[in-house]
Fold each of these.
Amino acid sequence: MTKAPLLPVVVIFVLLLLLAATSSGMTAVSEHQQRRCLSWRVAVEANNARAWSSVPPTCVGYVEDYMLRGQYQRDLDTVTYQIFAYLNNTINVAAADGMDAWVLDVDDTILSNLLYYKGKHYGGDPYDPLGFRSWAQRGICSAIPKMLRVYKRLIEKGFKVFLVTGRDEEMFNSSTSRNLDAQGFKGHERLIMRGADYRGVGASVFKSTMRKQLVGKGYRIRGNIGDQWSDLLGDCNGDRIFKVPNPMYFVP
Amino acid sequence: MTKAPLLPVVVIFVLLLLLAATSSGMTAVSEHQQRRCLSWRVAVEANNARAWSSVPPTCVGYVEDYMLRGQYQRDLDTVTYQIFAYLNNTINVAAADGMDAWVLDVDDTILSNLLYYKGKHYGGDPYDPLGFRSWAQRGICSAIPKMLRVYKRLIEKGFKVFLVTGRDEEMFNSSTSRNLDAQGFKGHERLIMRGADYRGVGASVFKSTMRKQLVGKGYRIRGNIGDQWSDLLGDCNGDRIFKVPNPMYFVP
C-alpha cells in the first residue's frame, strides 16, 4: 500500500474550516441585525413604534427580505385566518336589516403598493408625495389576493362594505375606482375618500369622523381592517379590528 | 511522487456532503415551523390573535427559545427605548399640580413570572389557577430590570404611578406588596388590586373602571404600560399605550 500524502487532505480541511468560520461569522453579523430589525418590526405591528418617517437604514435589507421572501405572505395568511375565524364563530351572516357593516382601508390593505415601494427601497426612502401621486393615478395596484378573498366573503355574507381611504378624492377618485373594479373589488356600498374639507387632517381623525357618520346612519361596524393603526383606533372603530402587516411606512 | 489514494478523500467528501444535507434538511423543517410561530407571535403582539388558551403545541419550543435566547430581552429593550423617547420628547417632567399619572400593570409587565411559566412549558400548558395562586403567594417574582428602570425614571420625574393589577386583593395583597417592595418598586401612589366587587369581571372592564376613577379624581393618564391588550384598551386608556411583549398567555 502506498503512503497517502497528507498535503491535499490538510489543504481541504483548512479550506473547509475557513469557509465554516467565515460563513458563521457572516451569519452572526446578519443574524444580529435581523434580530434587531425583527424587534423593530414587531414594535411597528404592536403600535409601539410611532411617527417614524422611513424604515431605519440598517433594516432596509431586512424589510425587503420580509416583503419578498415569504414572511409577509405568511403574516397575511395569519390575519386572514383570524378574520375568517371571527366571521365563522361570531357573526357568520349579516343581519336582515342590512345595517351590518365592515370598514376596510385601501392602500396596502386590499390594494398593494409593493411595486411602487420596490423603487423606494421598501420604505427606506422618505415619503415622496409626487411620486406616489403619479403611481396612484395610474390605477395599476394589484389586489392583495388574500384580502380579495376576505372582501368577497364579506359581500357574499351580506355585509355592507365601506372602503375608507385617506386618498384625496379630487386627485384619485377615478383612478382608484377604476383600479378597484379592475382588480375585482365589486359590490361595496361606498368608496369614501378624503374630501376637500379633510385635507391636511390626520388619517385617524378623518377616518374616525367617517365611521361616526356611518354609525350615525345606523350602521353597526362589525369589523375594521387596515394596515395602519390610524385606520383602526379612534371613535366607532368597530366590534373587532384587524391589523394587516406593513413595515414600509407609517401614516399618522 | 507517490500517487495519492482517492479513498480517504472521497470518504471525507461524502461524509461532509451527508452532514450538509442532513443539517440543511433539519434547518428547513425547523425554519418553516419557526416562521409560522413567528407569524403567530406577531399576531399576538398586534392583537389579531385573541382568546387563545395556551401556546399552540407546535410553538412551545419556539416560545421557549424566544423567552430565553435573547429576542424577548431585545423586545423589552425596544419598548423601553420607545417609552424613554416618549418621555424625553413629549412630557419630560410631571406638571407641578401632581396630577400627571402613569398606569402600569404588574404581572409580566414589571414583575416576571418566567420562572413559574418555565414549569408550564412557557404557556404550552393550560392556565392553572391553583398553581399560579401558590406561586404568586410566595411573593418571589423578579423585577423585569428594564421595567424597573422605567418605573424609577417615572418616580424621579414626579409622575404619580398607579400599579393596576387583576390579582385578587384578598388573596394576594400582602404577597404582592412585599414582592414589589423587595424588588425595588418603591414610591408608587397606589397598588390597585381586584376587589371582591370585581371578581369574575374581565380585566379590560375592571381596569377601565379603575382608570375612569383616577380620571374622575382629576388625574391625567400620560402613559399606560401592559403586557396584555386588556391592560391597554378600553376607557381612559391614557395619552399613550405601550405593549410589553408576552407570548405565554392571554388575559381577556
Note: The CA atoms of residues 97 and 219 of chain A lie 10 Å apart.
Amino acid sequence: MSLGIVDGHCELALPASWRQNAAMNREALRRVVETTDTKAGRRFDLTFQFLIVIAVVSFSVQTLPDLPEGLRHLLGWVEVITVVIFTAEYLLRLWVAESRIRYAFSFFGVIDLLAVLPFYLASGIDLRGVRAFRLLRLFRLFKLLRYSRAISRFRVALGLVREELILFAALALLVLYASALGIYYFESRAQPDEFGSLFHSLWWAVTTLTTVGYGDVYPVTAGGRVFTFLVLMVGLGIVAVPTGLVASALSEARRLEQERSHSY
Amino acid sequence: MSLGIVDGHCELALPASWRQNAAMNREALRRVVETTDTKAGRRFDLTFQFLIVIAVVSFSVQTLPDLPEGLRHLLGWVEVITVVIFTAEYLLRLWVAESRIRYAFSFFGVIDLLAVLPFYLASGIDLRGVRAFRLLRLFRLFKLLRYSRAISRFRVALGLVREELILFAALALLVLYASALGIYYFESRAQPDEFGSLFHSLWWAVTTLTTVGYGDVYPVTAGGRVFTFLVLMVGLGIVAVPTGLVASALSEARRLEQERSHSY
Amino acid sequence: MSLGIVDGHCELALPASWRQNAAMNREALRRVVETTDTKAGRRFDLTFQFLIVIAVVSFSVQTLPDLPEGLRHLLGWVEVITVVIFTAEYLLRLWVAESRIRYAFSFFGVIDLLAVLPFYLASGIDLRGVRAFRLLRLFRLFKLLRYSRAISRFRVALGLVREELILFAALALLVLYASALGIYYFESRAQPDEFGSLFHSLWWAVTTLTTVGYGDVYPVTAGGRVFTFLVLMVGLGIVAVPTGLVASALSEARRLEQERSHSY
Amino acid sequence: MSLGIVDGHCELALPASWRQNAAMNREALRRVVETTDTKAGRRFDLTFQFLIVIAVVSFSVQTLPDLPEGLRHLLGWVEVITVVIFTAEYLLRLWVAESRIRYAFSFFGVIDLLAVLPFYLASGIDLRGVRAFRLLRLFRLFKLLRYSRAISRFRVALGLVREELILFAALALLVLYASALGIYYFESRAQPDEFGSLFHSLWWAVTTLTTVGYGDVYPVTAGGRVFTFLVLMVGLGIVAVPTGLVASALSEARRLEQERSHSY
C-alpha cells in the first residue's frame, strides 16, 4: 500500500516498516471512523450519536434555574467528559483522514472543531463572551445529519427547485417589505408604539404572513384591516408555496431514484 | 372440519359431536364478528360503532361541571351498560378467534381489553389513580379505525415516504432545538420569566414553528425578532413539508392502485 | 312544436294557437334564463350577479351601528326592490322550466325560494325569529357559483379524493377528541376555568390543531406543553393533509381533461 | 443602419452623419441598458440593483423615531442622490428605447417614473399628501423582479392554474362572507364591541381562516365556537388550496420546460 495518497503533513523520520504499520492501522481505523460498512463502524457511529444526545440534554438541563447543587455538579462533570471525548474524536478523525487539510476545512471538520473549542477558550477566558461561545455548541447537533442517508434525496430535490426557492425567497422579502410599508402608512398614527417605524412594521409583517399571529401587534384601523386582508390573500401563497415545492420535488427525486434503479 | 386449526387452550373433555357443534357455531360467529361479508356482520359492526360513539359522548358530558343530578345518574348507568357490553364483546372475540393468544396480544385485542379493564379496576380501588386509568378509554376510539378500508391506501402512502418522514421529523427536532437555543440567547435576559430556560424556549419554538402562536411568549428584543424571522424562513418549511409529502404520496398510492386494477 | 315535453301543471282551456304561441315564447325565454349561449342570456346572468352583489353589500352595511337615518332608509328601499326582483326571477324560472316540479325541488330552486321567502315571512310576523330567517339570505351568494364553469373540474377532483377526504375527516375528529381528552387530563386542575370540561378542551384542540391559536386558551403545565408538542407533531399533518390532497387532485383533474381533449 | 425602426418623436434637423452616429451610440447603449448579454450590461444592472437596495434601506431607517441629527442629514442626502440617479436612468431608458411611447406606457416605464416623480412633486408642494406619495416609492422594489429569469416559469405555472385560482379566490370570498355572517349571528349579542357589524365579523373571518389568529377577536359562546369549528373544517382548505395548486403547477411548468429542451 503506497503512501502516495497521503498528503505529507508531519511525516516524521521513522523506520519504513514502522510507518507502513501505522499506515495500515490508519487504514483500518479510517474504515471504522468514516464508514458504516463494518460492525465496528456502526457501533462507533451509534456511540457518538448517543454521546451527542447526552451532551445536548445535559446542556439543556443546565439552563434550568434553581437546580439542586448536586445535579449542577454532575452536569458539570458530564460536560467535561463529553468535551474530552469529542476532542479525542476530532483528533482521531484528523489522524485517519486521507487528506488532513481537506478534513480540517470540510464542513464537518469545522463543526467538530467548533463543538469543542469554546470549552477550552471559555476555561481560559471565563468572561462575558463565554455565553456567546457556548451557543456554537449547537453545531454538535448537525453531527446527527452526518449519519442520515435519506438526506441525499433531499439534496436532489433542493437542486430541482433551487431556482424557484430563490425566486420565492426574493418575492417573500419583497412582499414582507411592501406589507410593512403599507401597514406603517395605515397604522403608525393610530398605534405609534406598535408601528413606530418600518422595522416595527416588519415584525408585524413577519408574524402575520407566516400566520404565526402572536397578537402583540395587529391593525386596529379599518384601512389597516382591509390592507391586511389584501396582503394575506396574496402573501400567504408566496410564503407558503416553497413548502409545497419542496414536497413535490421530493416526490420527483424519489421517482428519479426508482427509474435509475429499474434501468439497471 | 378438523379442530387442528384451533390452538389448544382450554379443551375440555367433551363428547366429540358436542365439540364439533361448538366449533361450527364458532366458525359461523367468527364470520359475523370478524368480517363484514354478511349482512349480520355489517349489522354487528354498525351496532358496536354506534355504542362506541354513545360511550364517548356520555363520557364527554360527564366531564361538564354543574350537571343536574338526574343526568349524572343516567350517564353513570350508560357507562355501566356500555362497559358490560364491551366486556361481552371482548370475551366473544376471544372465544371466536382462530388463535386466542394472537388476538389477546394483537393491537386491537389489547385495546379492547384496556377499554374495559379500568372500569373494574377503578371500582375495586376507587382512589387517586382512577382518573389516569379512565384516560385509557380513549383507545376505544381507535376501534372506529378498524372498520375503515381507505386506510390501506394511507398505509401504502406512509410506506412510500417513510424515510422522508423520519428525516423531516429528525430535522424538525433539530430546528426546534436550535431555535430554542437561539431565542434563549437573545431573550433570556430581557424576559427571564418567559424564556427562563431552554425548556421554556422550546415551548416558544413549538408554538412558533407550527405557526400556532398563542401569544403567551414572543420575542421583544430586536435581535430576538430578527432571529425569529430567520428561523421562520427556514423552519416553517421543515415543519410543514411532511404534510405535502403525505398528500403527494397518497396521490401516488391511488395511481398505483389504479394501475394494478387496470392490469388485471 | 309538441307540448309533450311540458309537464302538465296548470294547463288551462285555451285555444290551441294561443297555447302554442306561449310555448314558443317560453322556449325562447328559457334559453335566455337558463343558458348563456346567447347575448341576451349572458346579459341576464350578469345583471342578476350584479344584483346579488348589491343585495349583499346593502345587507352588510345595514348591520353597521349608528347609521345615518337617510342611509338606513335608502338601504331599506334597496332591500325591498332587490327582493321583488328576485321574486320575479324565481317565478320566471319556475314558468320557463322544462319540468316545474324538478326545478322547485332542485338545489338552486330551493335556494332561489329561500332567498326571498324570509322577507315576506318577516313582514308578516315581525318578531324574534326575523333575525334567524335573515341568515338564510346567505344562500343568495351561492347563486354566484351557478355561473362558474371551472367548478366542474373541482367536482372531478373532489370525486377522485372523496374516500381520502372522508378518512382524514374521521381521523381529524379522532385526533381532536384525543387531544382534548389529553389536555383535559393535564390542564383541568391547573386551569379549571379554561379547561373546565371536555368541551372546553375541544375548543382548545380546534384552535391549536388548525394553528389558529387565538391565545385565549393554552397549556401552562409542563405536562400539558409536552403533550401539545406531541399532538402538534402528529395532528398538524392530519388536519392539513386534505388541503394538499385537493390541490394534487385538481392537477390530476386538469390532466384528465387535457387527455380527453387531445384524444378527440 | 436605417432609422425606420425608430419611431419619429423629436427628430431635429441635424446633418445625416451626426444623426447616424447618435443612432449607433443609442444602439450600443440600448444593449447595455436593456440587455444583460454584455459585461457592461451586467455591470449596469448590478449597479442599479445595488442602488435600489440602498434607497430602500435608507428610506426604512428614516422612519425610525429619535434618529441622531447627523444620520438624518446623511439619509436626506442619500435620498437626493439616489433620486437624481434614478431620474437619469429613466431619461436614459427613454432615450435608448426602440419605441419611446411603448416604454413610457410599459409596466416598468410607469414604475420607473412613479419611483422618482413623488420626490419632485413633494418638494414643490410640501404638504399633507407628501406621505401618501412616498408610498409609491415602494414600486422601486419591483425593479428587482425585472432581472429575475425564473419568473417566466412562474408565469407559465400561473397560466396553468389561472381558472382554479379565480374559482378559489371567489370561493374564499364567499366562505369569508358566510363565516362573517354566521359569527355575527352567534356573537354580536355576547360581544357587541368585537362583533358590532358584519365588517367587524369579516375581520374575525380573515384572521381565523388564514389561521393568523391574533387573538383580538374570538368567539366566546358555545354556538360561536361550534360554528368556528365547522367553518375551519371547510374553509381552511379553500383558503389554503391555492398554495398547493401553485406549487404543483410550478412542478408541471418545470416538466414542460424539460420536455421542450429534450425535444430539440
Note: Chain A touches chain D at residues 160-161, 163-164, 166-167, 170-171, 174, 177-178, 181-182, 184-185, 188, 196-199, 208, 211-215, 218, 222, 225, 228-229, 232-233, 236-237, 240-241, 243-245, 247-249, 252 (CB under 8 Å).
